[in-house]
Amino acid sequence: MKRLLVVTAVVLLLIAPVRAGDVGSTFGALSTARTIPSGDRLINVRVGVADITSVAGVFGFGFSRTGDARLKIGVIDDSGFKTSFSLGADAKWQLMSMGKNRADSGGPAGSAPFDLAVGPLLEWFKVDFENNPTFESQSVLQLGLAATGSFPVQLNKGGDLTPYGRLDARIEWVSMNAAAGATPAGDQDDSQLALGLNLGVAWRPARSSVVLYGELQLDGNDGLFLGLDYLF
Questions:
Q1: Strands annotated E in the chain
Q2: Annotation: CATH topology of 2-231
């Protein structure tokens, strides 16, 4: 436990100076390191109560023994801009597994101390500002890599509880479109390196295809994300 606290503190210290001014994800992570079994599909609904309020739907599918992908679409809102849409996608490959029970469902076998997966992520949105005399709209493109670790715990009454964490590094491209007649006139484009940290817990009831999530996100769009998976 002491080692975990030290690692968490170091990660937060590393993120603090980099994330100043970051835009952040409007989707959160809401996924453990374990991938969707090959051939199965997943529907997820999620709500973000963060700096940017969001509601999103996700479709995921397992495309190999150790890989899955997710497509995302959301509605975002904030006091400074009109309600808009966000689009995203990510993929994940599970590199480490805690035990043979995962191999029985199609993933990697092993006796690692925790599950570990890595993969790319992509997100884009454009918003129109309200009552902004300088800029009319803003578009944001984010592209990066993420590592997810999780530790599933079997419950005595069935089901499991899985603490998880995701650390991502990404490039954010931000384009600001100037309002007509703005002074100084002209569009502005910028790019920056950003880091994000998501910490959460997933709960799967016994004999259920549903998983419930609760998660804290620290990446520029800080807040609480809640979600529900349905696997079929």
A1: 41-50, 53-62, 67-78, 81-96, 115-128, 135-150, 153-154, 160-178, 188-204, 210-218, 223-231
A2: Porin (2.40.160)
